[in-house]
Amino acid sequence: MNHIHLRDGQNIVAEVGAAGKVNTRYLRGLNLVTREIDTERQSYLFNAHGDVVQLVDAYGNIKSYQYDAFGNEENPEPLDSNPFRYCGEYFDKETGEIYLRPRNYSPTTGRFLMEDTHWNPTNMIYGDNPLKINERKADPNDPLGLNTYTYVPDINAMMQSGNRYVYGMNNPIMYIDQNGNFVITTTVLLIAGGAALFGTIGGFVGNHIPNQKGATGWNKVGYIAGGAAVGAIGGAALGVAALPVATAAGFGGLSFSAAGVSTIAAAGTSFGTMGTLIAQNPNITVNWSTYAQHGLSRMAERGITQQMVNTWVATGKVLQQGADKFAYITREGMAVVNSAGETDNYILKHTI
After folding, report:
1. Which stretch of 47-51, 137-141, 211-215 has the lowest confidence by average pLDDT?
2. How many other CB atoms sit within 10 Å of the CB of residue 142?
């Protein structure tokens, strides 16, 4: 069957039927909100990963969807005309592929049909925004006058560029690729969604207050902007609070993305050489008396203080590395210590 789609940019907003008239319309906000077929309206409901999990009509009838990790729908109905499913994206029933703008994705193989063109020799090791450490000013006696520094390899960049056909770095539970070129975490979706939703609500509230008080001009603008800002901050906080719910639904993990946002995983989750997540903090106190002076100097060069590390160890998520070594990870940075509080000079500060 042939379908003629009308688009707003790269998003499908309507379909044209055989008679040449629009027979289906899609309302979009942050993502799909409703679809309207003739006069019948249905609403889309999503999970934390952005998958369409329910389609509800005006009478309360519900059509539910379930998928495996890579997007293969379980028990699909052959006559189901809804085209938006896994990740909330367009699913072509004839080819079994999902439309992700620059590239089509096949959930059967868990691979894109074209390679990712974003990655090239300039960014495939250190990423798009390389992080410098150990930066030192040029020696006055150096005739070239060059500063010295070290670039930190970006593990996400290497994982994505290593195989340019994989979806979500082969971890589609934790990551989503909305346009075929850029991977984000489910955490970012929750935080951004909460900020946008409650920021909008705050703006409406901020508009209502000056109307009640009779404020006009820039005073009214201040109320609206303040309401939107407070709403966005509160919404983002609710997005963070929703992370354990997302984890319970199977969307947890630890994210070391460029956004610097960490998610929450279930205790016992293994992260390879990084260690295994444990539920209880061993309550280790860093023994700074055993830390070498040159190590303290390197910390200072990176903008890290002893108080910062103490806070990370007291509040961070804990990955156990072997019998007597623990990695404490926060949004601000990480530190690796043993049960005696001795570090192994592995202290990093994240850039957020």
Report:
1. 211-215
2. 10
